[in-house]
Amino acid sequence: MAFNPDKDLKQYYSIAEVSEMFGLPASLLRYWEKEFPTIRPKKGGNNVRMYTKEDIEEIRLINDLVKVRNMKLAAARELIQRNREGAKNSSDLLVRLTSVREQLVEIKRTLEAIV
Q1: DSSP 50
Q2: Which of 16, 55, 57, 82 to pair with 9, CA 20 to 30 A apart?
Q3: CATH topology assigned to domain 13-114
């Protein structure tokens, strides 16, 4: 299930929910917290991590750089520190292009069904 940044978010998400959003194991999210100090979830009852919209946006950016573009963690961290806005804009563009592609594929299926 892909993360949709345009969808209204609730205030906090558990680590299990964030893990499911991105298809990443919770252990990787905890590891990224150590590697990227900009991810700062609050700890709720039973020490369950609770991620904010900002945390989720940061995870989306890191996921794009590390998992989609195959950057090393150090390179992703440096890019974010050096040019956060450029990296974020590039990531946002990729999300939009993926969405457009999915819409075009659906239109193609519909047209094929008509013909």
Answers
A1: E
A2: 82
A3: Multidrug-efflux Transporter Regulator; Chain: A; Domain 2 (1.10.1660)
What's the CA gap between 60 and 21, in Å, rounded? Answer: 10
Tally the residues of the chain.
115
Query: With bands split at pLDDT 50, 70 and 90, how would you rate the model's confidence at 36?
Result: very high
Kindly calculate the radius of gyration of the chain based on its CA atoms and give it in whole angstroms: 16
Q: Quick one: DSSP state of residue 47?
A: G
For the chain, the average pLDDT equals 84
Pairing of strands 42-43, 13-14: unpaired
Amino acid 38 reads: T
Orientation of helix 53-63 relative to helix 15-22, angle to 10°: 40
pLDDT at residue number 69: 85
Helix (H, G, I), strand (E, B) or coil at 115: coil
Per-residue tokens: 113: 């069904």
Contact yes or no for 16/46 (Cβ under 8 A): no
Six-digit token string for 115? 């013909």
Backbone φ and ψ of 42, nearest 5°:
-80, 155
